[in-house]
Amino acid sequence: MAEKMKQANKVVITTLLENHSGIEPNFTAQHGVSFLIEVTVGKNTKKILFDTGPSSEVVAHNMKYMGIKPDTIDMIALSHCHYDHTGGLTGILKEIQGHDVPILAHPSLFEIHLVAGSGPKPRNWLTRPIGMVGENTEENIKKHGGFLTLASNPFELMPGVLWAGEIERVTDFEKTPTLVTRIIRDGKVLNDPIIDDTALAINVAGAGLFVVSGCSHSGIVNIVKQCIKFSQVKKVKAVIGGFHLINASNDRIEKTISALKELNVEKIYSGHCTGFKAQAAIYHGFGDAFEELYVGKVIHSDL
Asked: What DSSP designation does 162 have?
């Protein structure tokens, strides 16, 4: 981007799905992530569904309880292809019942991704597909009203909203993902660097950047740096999402916290794949500027 990114007037980020449901008995939790991002520019508000969790039924249940109508969703953005972020896609399209619903994702969305095994067997044995599974075929998505836009480059999605694109791996301790996966490409099984893992950044007037990630397989520090670089906005008000530090070393966790502090990140909201150990360390490092994510958690730009 040649110019500094435009500004939104406000953003409201609602957690539709997370690994746990807090203390509200009517919400349903599931391993996965889904956020509703409402961006207001002037008199116009657009609703972006960021990830769909593994099950549309659970996301739809939580939306109904919160009084959110699926047909008010303007577009869907996918952080990466893994099932716990995309499994509910076709089902959500059925709930929306729209035509040409924009779906933004990486060009490798429909490639075959496999998770590597762990436990008593070697870690290089392949267990199961981890990408687009079940009814989430390209044909079904189009059939139920989805309009696919597959893009790898960063660009301003709408005034004040950045699609971060493929994340540059510039941070030394984040060059290797903390999850071992494989990809089948041109008939070959290859190590998967998870290049499709990305984020959205919302630049809010008077507040700064709100960076929303799914799993941060590309490294949450790399993601924040990329959002700063392409938005040309240095102030980071909040970083939100899963950081996939669940099986990271103590050294990597501590370096992540130090790097986020050096980038002057003001608030951290994490959950999903971040892991208890990492969340405890982030709380120790950020104090009350850290909050855990849960279903129903709402984050306002005037926080």
From this structure: E
* CA atoms lying within 13 Å on the CB side of residue 22: 16
The CATH fold assigned to 10-165+176-300 is Metallo-beta-lactamase; Chain A (3.60.15)
User: How far separated are the first and last CA of the chain, in Å rounded?
Assistant: 28
Within the chain, residue ranges assigned H as helices are: 56-66, 83-86, 89-96, 138-143, 220-231, 250-262, 276-286
Tokens of 237: 């008000």
pLDDT reading at 121 higher than 80: no
**pTM: predicted TM-score of the whole model, two decimal places:** 0.95
DSSP secondary structure string for all residues of 99-123? SSEEEEE-TTTTSEEEEEP-SSS-T
* Cα 192 from chain centre: 18
**Phi-psi sector, 145: left (phi>0), alpha (psi -120 to 50), beta:** left
Q: What is the pLDDT of residue 115?
A: 86
